[in-house]
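Progress report, Aim 2. The chain analyzed during this reporting quarter is listed below.
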Amino acid sequence: MYQYAASLTKLIEQFARLPGIGPKTAQRLAFYVLNMPRLQVEEFAKVLVEVKETVKTCPACCNLTDVVPCRLCGDESRDRSLICVVEDAQDVIAIERTREFKGLYHVLQGTISPMEGKGPDDLRIRELLQRLRNEEIAELIIATNPDVEGETTAFYLAKLFKPMGIKITRIAHGLPVGGELEYADTATLTRAMSGRREMNI
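Predicted structure tokens for the chain:
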């Protein structure tokens, strides 16, 4: 049976490790890279290393950033009494596209998922608790995805923070159940944010 050169096979295997990339797409990407000019390949490799070296977690909101604090936390024009809790960095970008939310964010970097062995201690909840203790927060908006893991995480956070006397709201479900913020259109996200409701536990 015919086999590709060892280095090409390795490249195909690396692409196949990426989420949403199947064997055929991995093969197509590998051949595309192989046909790229050498300088372009070197630039591509350089950017991959650079992103690993320069992108860090903001110590305040746990979002991905290359400056400390991140640009959103450092923006004095934002409403510092509002914190929107999201699952990951892509969700911050999705909400920012609506141009409706003017508060700050907190990125959990995941959700509670017993199936994947992820519990509350695996998320950035400790950092959020610290913020709520140290800053004057009027409202905590929970904007996790409307799937089982997102709902479980939202309920856990509401139960944990409600005794602190902070208003806790959940974004309205203009989003489909099982959907993800990252793929929602701007109008849907705008409606979901403006129609958020207080969580009762």
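The domain at 64-198 is CATH 3.40.1360.10 (Dna Topoisomerase Vi A Subunit; Chain: A, domain 2). The two ends are 61 Å apart (CA to CA). These observations will guide the mutagenesis work planned for the next reporting period.
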